[in-house]
Design a protein that fits this description.
Helix 1 runs antiparallel to helix 4, helix 2 packs parallel to helix 4 and helix 3 crosses helix 4. It contains six helices and four strands. A hairpin with a 2-residue loop joins strand 2 and strand 3. 72% of the residues lie in helices and 6% in strands.
Amino acid sequence: MNKPPNFLIDLVVFQVAWFACVLGSATEYPFLFPFAGFLFVLCRIATTRRFRSSFPFLLAAVALGMVGDSLLVHLEMLAFYADPTVGGAPLWMIFLWANFGLMLRPLFSWFLQNNSRCLIGFGLGGLIAYASGWQLERLAFTSDWTSAIAIATEWAIAGLILRQLHHKYRNIHQ
């Protein structure tokens, strides 16, 4: 379990990286700030010696995010205001998913402990994060309610997959 001071540090690092990705994507250097945010999270993971336990979640989150977001773009449920993209998902969003994967266990382990918390927490949390991105004009829900349901579903499915991975790798120390 992540102790309170470490939890707060992890939370601040994650939020700084989130803003670097989302707001940085609107600058002259749309790749620089998301990359810097990722390096910030990576440094935190390295200094706490959690890279080995976080690596499977990094890979899984990036894959889930790229597939899920690209699918939502192709289904015209979601639109991003950024280039370049990989299959429809912008690079800043891929960095966000990478950051999420690296910080999954230190910040979100409570949600990974049972299916209900996982479905509700990740479904609502993902929807709130994307709605925040919409308010910051970095993405758009192309169909208000349908898009919201699709995004919540994407995140709920991703959460359940990450929960299974969490249990598979439970012996790798956090």
